[in-house]
Write a structure and sequence with these properties.
Order of helices and strands: HHHHHHHHH
Distance between the termini: 11 Å
Number of helices: 9
Shape: globular
Number of strands: 0
Strand content: under 5%
Radius of gyration: 19 Å
Helix content: 55-70%
Structural class: mainly alpha
Length: 282
């Protein structure tokens, strides 16, 4: 079993952000305001919180296989916790002036595309084994909505010159959009594979197979992180990565315990060549 520590998964996820910065693809304001400093501190606090709660299991979110039977219908609960953050981003964008500049519209479209896809999957793809725990719906919706508000605000703070010229770097925009779409497709394909493993009326957990499941336990998590990375690359502002870094910490911890869970439920699994999140790394 390739049970490597949390730091390996998190630092591997941070590495492309460092590359983007060294390539001049991450913008920071020339003078950091208290709001900017506060957003960075908040991001760091959420990263630490996700490590403690998901990897060390201080207070993990209760959903999916790690939760008891809940009282909120699964499709309703999951739809709400994806729809509310999207609405929060739209409302924040509107509150900040509803800018129709190409930069703002592209970032709005990418953010809404991500959560619209998740709402679609909730209604048309996923097959749920149990209803949602109410507190988990509230916690996840709040977590995502906080990310939506802070992201929309920080993108709004991008300087005028950088905002007007962001399309000048066609390579960065094309790379970012390509990474974003690749991540979304990876996430969708593996969600479909997971759903196809469950026959109608049968909700017994089975060992996932197909796609990248032969390499990692949670390829759907990897796809989600890749899509948020693409969002950050296109967004160029440091604020575009505010969602990405906490999600790397969160899903690194979640993948770790999914990996451990499969090992307790199924004999000889995970195999020695199976990783948690990143193929051949973590």
């Amino acid at each position: 079993m390739s049970d490597r520590p949390f730091a390996v998964g998190f630092l591997f996820g941070v590495f492309p952000v460092l590359l983007s910065y060294l390539n001049g693809w991450v913008w920071f304001p020339s003078e950091m305001t208290w709001e900017d400093k506060g957003l960075m501190i908040l991001c760091a606090m959420i990263v630490v919180s996700n490590y403690l709660n998901e990897y060390l299991q201080w207070y993990p979110l209760q959903y999916s296989k790690f939760a008891p039977e809940g009282g909120v219908p699964a499709r309703l609960g999951w739809f709400l916790l994806y729809f509310i953050p999207m609405l929060a981003y739209i409302l924040t964008w509107n509150y900040l002036g509803a800018s129709t500049e190409p930069y703002d519209l592209l970032m709005l479209g990418m953010y809404c595309a991500h959560f619209s896809k998740r709402c679609f999957e909730t209604l048309c793809v996923h097959k749920y084994s149990k209803d949602c725990v109410l507190i988990a719906v509230i916690e996840i919706a709040t977590f995502y909505s906080l990310g939506a508000v802070t992201t929309a605000y920080s993108l709004h703070s991008l300087s005028g010159s950088a905002r007007h010229s962001f399309l000048d770097n066609e390579l960065r925009v094309k790379v970012g959009l390509g990474v974003f779409c690749t991540g979304q497709l990876c996430n969708l394909v593996h969600h479909y594979i997971l759903a196809s493993l469950r026959s109608p009326g049968k909700y017994k957990y089975v060992v996932p197979s197909g796609g990248l499941f032969s390499l990692v336990v949670c390829p759907q998590y990897a796809g989600e992180l890749v899509s948020w990375l693409g969002f950050g690359i296109v967004g160029t502002s440091y604020g575009a990565f505010i969602n990405y870094l906490p999600m790397v910490a969160y899903l690194s911890g979640r993948a770790h315990h999914t990996y451990r869970w499969y090992g307790t439920k199924f004999e000889d699994y995970p195999g020695k060549n199976t990783f948690k999140l990143w193929p051949f790394v973590y």
